[in-house]
Design goal:
By secondary structure, the protein is α+β, with helices and mostly antiparallel strands. The protein has a single domain, classed as 2-Layer Sandwich (GMP Synthetase, Chain A, domain 3). The chain contains 5 helices and 3 strands, in the order ααββααβα. A 3-stranded mixed β-sheet has the order 1-2-3. Strand 1 and strand 2 form a beta hairpin.
Length: 126
């Protein structure tokens, strides 16, 4: 039995986020969506969606994945977000009741674009 236990301990384990991390990610998503819609000047006819929010286990940072439609506005929206990142961080800190608010890391989520391209390829086969 000891051999089996030591083999299991040596195996790489994938940690799933605990309930508190998931709840914090949900709260951050809601507050950030409200802050962005109220405080930032996103170009007209542009849809900005927060697709993923991942809080690191040590609460030091939050990785935020964004989807921007139309895709030709992605660079413009990312410039606006990166220029206002400190402001977003400050406004989020006012909403959260935490000793130390995680640092925001914003990136584009390419999964929606990949899915659209794959769907287009599948449609062209029919």
């Amino acid at each position: 039995m000891k051999k089996l236990d030591s083999a299991l301990l040596g195996a790489k384990q994938v940690k799933t986020p605990n309930r508190r991390l998931l709840r914090l990610a949900s709260v951050i998503r809601q507050h950030l969506a409200n802050i962005i819609s109220r405080e930032l000047e996103i170009p007209r006819r542009t849809l900005l969606t927060i697709s993923t929010v991942e809080v690191l286990a040590d609460y030091s940072a939050v990785k935020i994945g964004l989807v921007v439609w139309p895709t030709d506005q992605q660079e413009v929206v990312m410039v606006i977000l990166n220029n206002n990142l400190k402001r977003l961080q400050m406004l989020l800190a006012q909403k959260l009741t935490m000793y130390r608010v995680p640092r925001l890391q914003v990136s584009l989520d390419e999964s929606a674009n990949k899915a659209a391209r794959l769907e287009g390829l599948l449609d062209s086969l029919e």
